[in-house]
Specification:
- By secondary structure, this protein is mainly β.
- The protein has no helices and 25 strands.
- It has strands spanning about 1-5, 5-10, 25-30, 35, 50-55, 60-65, 80-85, 90-95, 105-110, 115-120, 135-140, 145-150, 165-170, 170-175, 180, 185-190, 190-195, 200-205, 220, 225-230, 245-250, 255-260, 270-275, 280-285, 285-290.
- The protein has a four-stranded antiparallel β-sheet with strand order 1-2-3-4, with no helix packed on it. A four-stranded antiparallel β-sheet has the order 5-6-7-8, with no helix packed on it. A four-stranded antiparallel β-sheet has the order 9-10-11-12, with no helix packed on it.
- The chain starts with a strand and ends with a strand.
């Protein structure tokens, strides 16, 4: 989760069995240097895997959903947690529950200290055959607490989970890949969309498809309108087939340019843009710095 000049990495798994972790780390950018990892950052209030997260205004971030078990089918959880960064170690607190449980949901940052949680996996959503949701929940920071907006939330264009998202500008995001399906068949997506939040609903514009269908992966917004996309899985959940693919997506030209393979295959991670035009890239097993020049 990128906010201010820092990146917060929380939750995930610690072994091949998929054991959820409560570990949390904060990286702070140092202009002209390699940056530093903060010591003593408190752990999540509870171990989580398959959770989503996003910034929530200045110095805050939230994470949502996920699972507390090693099972590929969850159960999914409806919990949320708020992280507040004080420049040294920060603190976690519990937030209000979502209207439905979700694993692998999108958390979309919006202006006005707002974050929108949409989609996600929940085995047999609402007792039906669908395994993925298209519904959303809107959260806002009131200045003292994290609050869930009343009523039904916004929907995204397609029911999906384990998609990836990058904020391109205020109230706009690039969303790509993911997985869809019911309790008999799942399919990976090559769908790329540009979503826009108008304060009450999300409109989606379909863009150039991914070179290969995938779920997960990470990205960072570079200088201009260039976006770095790395990795992902070409296997349907829970089969993990990490990719070492790397590409630049041109937001204005709506086109992909393939790069040489990344230093290692990765299922996910984070790519946080830094003020000097480079990006901090955290992939499975490595912390890198990407220079577009």
């Amino acid at each position: 989760i990128h906010f201010d000049d820092t990146a917060n990495i929380a939750g995930g798994v610690t072994d091949v069995a998929g054991t959820p972790t409560d570990l949390a780390n904060v990286y702070t950018h140092v202009p002209g240097g390699v940056g530093t990892w903060a010591g003593g950052v408190p752990v999540l209030p509870a171990p989580r895997r398959e959770l989503g997260g996003a910034e929530l205004g200045t110095g805050r971030a939230m994470v949502a959903g996920g699972s507390a078990t090693t099972s590929a089918t969850g159960p999914a959880l409806d919990t949320t947690f708020l992280f507040e960064w004080n420049g040294s170690i920060g603190a976690w607190s519990a937030g209000p529950a979502m209207n439905e449980p979700r694993m692998g949901a999108l958390v979309l940052p919006a202006s006005g200290d707002v974050a929108i949680v949409v989609g996600g996996y929940n085995n047999n959503v609402s007792g039906g055959n669908d395994d993925f949701s298209d519904d959303g929940d809107v959260f806002n920071w009131t200045g003292s607490v994290l609050q869930l907006a009343p009523g039904p939330g916004p929907q995204i264009g397609a029911s999906r989970g384990w998609s990836s998202v990058l904020e391109t500008t205020a109230n706009q995001w690039l969303v790509w890949g993911g997985e869809e399906g019911d309790n008999s068949t799942h399919d990976l997506l090559d769908l790329v969309e540009l979503g826009t939040w108008n304060g009450s609903s999300i409109s989606s514009q379909t863009r150039q498809s991914l070179p290969t269908p995938q779920r997960g992966g990470t990205a960072g917004l570079l200088t201009g309108n260039q976006i770095l996309l790395l990795g992902g899985s070409t296997g349907e959940y829970p089969t993990n087939t990490p990719a070492n693919t790397a590409a630049i997506y041109d937001l204005v030209g709506d086109s992909f340019t393939n790069l040489s393979p990344s230093p290692g295959a990765t299922l996910g991670g984070t790519a946080a843009p830094l003020p000097d035009g480079t990006s901090l890239v955290v992939i499975d097993g490595a912390v890198l710095r990407f220079n577009p020049l």
